[in-house]
């Protein structure tokens, strides 16, 4: 760690390739197995104020945005998380404090004092699988032009949140040879900026999208075929999120099917996909290991953080987690899909 | 085995609770681990002639029906399979021969010489997830009144294919205390015969249905909650099939999420659900073990047989399988969802 916020101390008797460490970070003071190399993550995306209605309640101007969810989820695995984004003067001090408490480095956050923060408002239907966007006010996000601070440019791991692919390219242009680039996108950009998106795809390692977006991008209804088509566009690794049906991890050599956590009460699906991305990239950064076996684990950590996210409104489900709770749920995922050979 | 079609010989040095046996049945002459107790399965359902159009081709008057698919799939695990159903004088001799070759006992098959076999005709859409029924001619099936031959009544394992729940009850009324009753149903019966279906549900052990049917029966969009509601109606164990997303196995103690086999080319989805039921019940009958661990394996065997089924038209995908091919695919399923703990 470069910032001294965590102290690593080697302990004897642990498994090969791992060292037992004690990490004295906030909410993380437990003995855990950690790999030797820790790296930070650069996150670029939106920071927003969301107003959300679900059948279970509503919130107004709650903290949201892709960069927010990704950062908070990833912060349980590595820190600091370096955020590049933009907010207005109305972005609440409490939100800043919350992110700083999670060891999110906000030196790359542009604050437009006389501008307003990006606002989104939506209503979820009874089954929570569909939502209506009630309003989208881009505000200061409309002219967002990501500028990567000099000290961020050597960050080895980059997570491009769901923003205009032109901006995603601008970010990559400023980076100094990142080792791992994980990228999210959505139907809006596939429909409107396909050519730019295709340029982005050529420069990333891992793409995360959902099943309908995969079908839209590939023009192929069969998800396995869609995966082949999309991977031929650039990313070596593709993750297709399927909501209540889990996720697929597709590489040249492997298809991995991750289960969904069986949830009876989903309070607010907002941010689930971004929390997935954060948990996924956080685990990869923490372990500095992109082997297929570890990519599978990263998908499970992504699913784990997404499952915590939807249990409460806004980012509340990602507050006050501990590494032990995350591990317990990781193991529940394992139990969920494990079966014995005969 | 009561009919002497298989010879069991114990071999030393095998795992506890299992004995190594050599099963000299057709297509099954390999050394495999088998439990000591083998039991037959009674299957009640439709035998039909299907005319199917898919984007990949079409067939006319091909062998189909729930009892057919269930029997053939289950026949790879136990024999004889005992079928109770009805066909007309036009049911082809080749279909009878095929079933007999698979050691399906047809003594319970009613043949109405001057009647016509149940015919179904359907067309699948491009993405194969939806189909239009073009015609349904019940013919002799309209007056089907299942009569269980005396020699079948002590069969310990019963699989009730997707027929009128009134008929399912009639079957159970004739059985002599079966140990395991597995039941399939569909939206048609949930809509039209819910009261009768609820009576059936009180007398079965395991219900198999798909996700939309589970939502319809429970009036609950969340599948985990739906599972709880449906299990409170009777069946201790519920399986919710989710097509390309795999299947859920739900019990009081456990949620198991089975992956779907990643298929790029599905030729004909007809019979996939019935093949699932056949593989599932066949494995349970073969092992005489309904522990939760073995129920999981049975779900994977069901998924395995369903995956073979959809690779070809009609029952062609279930012809000429071997136990080794089935085992190989079972292990592919394991690879598909397996990940290592950290």
Care to count the β-strands of chain A? 15
Query: What string gives the helices and strands of chain A in order?
Result: EEEEEHEHEEEEHEHHEHHEEEHHH
What percent of the residues of chain A sit in helical stretches (DSSP H or I)?
A: 25-40%
Question: Which percent band covers the strand fraction of chain A?
Answer: 15-25%
Number of helices of chain A: 10
CATH superfamily of the largest domain in chain A: Ribokinase
**Could you tell me which chain pair has the largest interface and how many residues each side has?**
A-B, 41 and 41 residues
Given this structure, which CATH class of the largest domain in chain A is correct?
Answer: Alpha Beta
Quaternary organisation of the protein chains: homodimer
CATH A-level architecture of the largest domain in chain A? 3-Layer(aba) Sandwich
Outline of chain A: globular
- Physical arrangement of strands within the biggest beta sheet of chain A: 7-6-3-10-11-12-13-14-15
End-to-end separation of chain A in angstroms reads 45 Å
Mean pLDDT of chain A: 89
């Amino acid at each position: 760690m470069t910032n001294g916020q965590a102290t690593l101390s080697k302990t004897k008797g642990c498994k090969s390739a791992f060292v037992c460490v004690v990490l004295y970070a906030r909410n993380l003071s437990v003995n855990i197995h950690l790999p030797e190399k820790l790296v930070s993550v650069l996150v670029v995306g939106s920071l927003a104020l969301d107003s959300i209605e679900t059948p279970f309640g509503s919130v107004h101007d709650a903290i949201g945005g892709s960069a927010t969810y990704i950062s908070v989820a990833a912060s349980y695995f590595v820190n600091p998380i370096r955020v590049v984004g933009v907010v207005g003067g109305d972005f609440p001090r409490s939100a800043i404090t919350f992110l700083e408490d999670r060891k999110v480095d906000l030196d790359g956050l542009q604050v437009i004092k006389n501008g307003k923060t990006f606002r989104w408002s939506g209503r979820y239907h009874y089954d929570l699988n569909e939502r209506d966007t009630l309003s989208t006010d881009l505000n200061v996000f409309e002219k967002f032009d990501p500028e990567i601070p000099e000290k961020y440019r050597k960050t080895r791991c980059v997570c491009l949140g769901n923003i205009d692919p032109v901006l995603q390219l601008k970010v990559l242009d400023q980076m100094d040879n990142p080792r791992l680039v994980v990228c999210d996108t959505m139907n809006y950009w596939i429909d409107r900026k396909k050519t730019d998106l295709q340029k982005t795809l050529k420069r990333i390692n891992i793409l995360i999208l959902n099943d309908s977006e995969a079908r839209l991008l590939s023009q192929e209804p069969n998800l396995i075929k869609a995966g082949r088509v999309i991977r031929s566009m650039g990313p070596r690794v593709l993750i297709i999120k399927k909501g209540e049906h889990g996720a697929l991890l597709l590489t040249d050599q492997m298809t991995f099917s991750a289960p969904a956590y069986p949830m009876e009460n989903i309070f607010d699906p907002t941010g689930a996909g971004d929390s997935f991305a954060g948990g996924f990239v956080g685990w990869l950064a923490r372990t500095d290991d992109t082997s297929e076996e570890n990519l599978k684990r990263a998908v499970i950590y992504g699913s784990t953080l997404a499952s915590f996210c939807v249990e409460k409104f806004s980012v509340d489900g990602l507050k006050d987690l501990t590494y032990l709770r995350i591990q317990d749920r990781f193991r529940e995922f394992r139990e969920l899909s494990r079966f014995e050979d005969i």
